[in-house]
Structure formats: C-alpha cells, structure tokens
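Supplementary Note 3. Input sequence used for the single-chain structure prediction.
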Amino acid sequence: MAEKKQCVFCTKNQKYVDYKNPEPLRPFLSGQMKIASSRRSGVCAKHQRKVSTALKRARYLGLIPYVLH
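The predicted structure, written as discrete structure tokens, is reproduced below.
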C-alpha cells in the first residue's frame, strides 16, 4: 500500500490560501476545471475546505475560468 501524501499547506506551515494568485491553485483543478478531491490532491480536510473556497472566489472574480471550451 502506498504511503499517504503529506498536505502541501501543513508542510509549509501555511495558514492562508490566497485566492488572488491563481497559479498555485492550478494543481487543485482537474482537466475540466473541476475542484480535485482531497484524495487526488493530497490535502488535509481543513485545507481542502480552504482551497475549495479560494477556487470559488477566484472563479467569481474571473481569475480562473469555470470551464474550458
């Protein structure tokens, strides 16, 4: 059985997920611009909630598209 991934934000001791900078949020999106599950992204539950909120805010502001054509 493979070892579980460590949370990126916990290892960097990052408390805040910045929605205004969309490039670090790209790995948490799938090919169809869906929010990736915590199993695939390897983020803990606390930071998964923060990442999903940050992605939704970035979408609302137009920094990240909702879908790809």
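Residues 19 and 56 are 9 Å apart (CA to CA). The chain is about 35% helix and 0% strand.
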